[in-house]
Amino acid sequence: MRFQWAGSQGVPAWLPEVHGRGTVRRGTLEDGDGAGSEVIVLTADARARPAAFDPAATAPPASTVDAIFVYGTLLEGEALHGHLPRHGPPVPATVRGTLVSLGWYPGLLLDPPGVVHGEVYRLADPGDALARLDEIEEFHGFDAADSLYHRRLVQTAAGLAWIYVLAHDPQRGVPIPSGDWRARD
Predict the structure, then answer these.
(1) Average pLDDT, the chain
(2) For the sheet containing 106-122, what is the strand order?
């Protein structure tokens, strides 16, 4: 079980305590706007889980974060933008990471750090929106090893937002040096 949180507002109240075997790492991560954010990564050995472990309970309540950072096919004017559930207007933003092309869609890696350009949207119904986006992004849960993407929290200039990052380092990914999906060619 691995949880990752990046933000400058302190540790969220929903961040679970790790009991038994596991590690907690703290550090800083440079945000897209150049400011430093606290990063907390919790990793717990699967054997440390209680018998009644519920993976859904490890996520923060969907209603606590109502924004999503998008950087590829969900951007305004791109192929899957129409699948982005009801939302407010886009706010341009950047995050730290590396953008790679996987053919007709991109992926974001948190290492090595660069700048990735995208948009933040406020979601009208975060619970419903995230469920639909999880399906599109093949995110099967916070504890699922078979996900194509992992959903994480990231601090942007527009505030705390969800982001989908690649679950595994791609073998065929081609780096996009500009960090901008629209300027990939």
Answers:
(1) 74
(2) 22-30, 36-44, 2-7, 149-156, 159-166, 67-70, 106-122, 91-101, 174-175
User: SS3 of 64, please?
Assistant: helix
Domain count, the chain: 1
How many C-alpha atoms does 165 have within 13 Å on its Cβ side? 20
Looking at residue 63, its pLDDT comes to 52
Domain that holds residue 98: 63-183
CATH number at residue 97: 3.10.490.10
Q: How does DSSP assign 74-106, residue by residue? A: TSTTSTTGGGS-SB---EEEEEEEEEEE-SSSE
Residue 13 covered by a domain: no
**20 inside domain:** no
Does a structural domain hold residue 10?
no
**For residue range 123-160, what is the model confidence (pLDDT) as tens digits?**
988 888 999 999 999 999 887 889 999 999 999 989 99
Within a domain: 83: yes
Q: How many residues does the chain have?
A: 185
